[in-house]
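During the second year of the project, the team shifted from modelling isolated chains to modelling whole assemblies. The rationale, set out in the original proposal, was that interfaces cannot be judged from single-chain predictions alone. As a representative example for this report, we include one of the complexes processed in the last quarter. Its constituent sequences, exactly as entered into the pipeline, are reproduced here:
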Amino acid sequence: MDWFLFCIFLAATFAAGATGAMFPTGEWYKQLNKPSWTPPNWLFPVAWTSIYLLMAFAGARVAVLEGSAYAMAFWAMQIAFNALWTPVFFGLRNLRASLPIMAGLWIAVFGATITHWQLDLWAGLAFVPYLTWVSVAAALNIAMVRLNPDQKPLRLETL
Amino acid sequence: MDWFLFCIFLAATFAAGATGAMFPTGEWYKQLNKPSWTPPNWLFPVAWTSIYLLMAFAGARVAVLEGSAYAMAFWAMQIAFNALWTPVFFGLRNLRASLPIMAGLWIAVFGATITHWQLDLWAGLAFVPYLTWVSVAAALNIAMVRLNPDQKPLRLETL
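Output from the structure prediction step:
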C-alpha cells in the first residue's frame, strides 16, 4: 500500500473526526431522552477511530485501481456529510436538520461500500463496520427526534 | 463527462456549502474588526457557488483517468477541511482554531490543483479560482486573529 496516499485519506478523516472533539456532547446531550439501546458514550470515539482508519485504508487500496471513479466520488461524498453532521447535531443542536444530513451520509456510505467491494474485497469489508454504525446512528437520530419533540435548536444568531 | 459522477461530487460540495447557510454570519461577524481589503459579503456565496461547481467538474473529469489516485485523495481531503472550517469559525466563533483548519485546507487545495493539472488541463484550471480564493480566505483569517485579540470563542458547553 502507498502510505503517503493513505496519509492524505487519513488527513481527510482527521478533519471529519475533529468535529467530535470540537463540538462536545456535554450536559445538553445528557439531558436528551434517548432510546434504551443507545450505545454507551465511551463506544463512540472508539468506533469512529476504528472506522476512520478502515476507511482511509479502503480509500488508499481502491484509489490506485482502474475503474475507481465512482468509489472515489462516494468516498469524497461520505467524508463531507460525515464532517457536517456533528456541527449540526451538537453545535446547532438541530435534531431535525441532522436527519437529511444523516440520510445523505447513509447513501454515500452505502454507495462507497458497494463500489469499493466491486473493486477490492478487503476495501469492501473495511466499509462494512461503517455502514453498520451509520445505520445505528441514523436509527438513533430518528429516535431522538421522536423522543424530544420540544427540543429547540440553538439560535446562534441571537448569541 | 459522466453526469452521474459529476452529481456525486456535487453532492459532496453541497454538504460543505450547506455550512454557509446553516452557520450564518450575522451580528457577531459584523462587529469583528476586519482589514480594509475584506471582500464584500455578497461576494462570498457567489464565489463559493462557482468554486463548488468548478471543483465537481474537475473531480468528475479526473476521476475516470488512470493515475488519479493522488488527485482523488486531495479532492477528498479538501472537501472535508472545507466542511469543517465554517462551523469552527462561525459556529464556535473560534478564530484561532480556524487557522490550522485553514492551513490544512490550503495544503489540500494546493495538492489537488497540482495533481489535477498533471492529468487534465481543464481540471487544473478549474482549481485555480479555488486556490486563489482560499489564499485570500487564509490571509483574512490571519488578519482577523490579529485585529480581534480579545475575541473569545463561544463556549457551547455552558449554554
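Chain A has a mean pLDDT of 96. Chain A has six helices and no strands.
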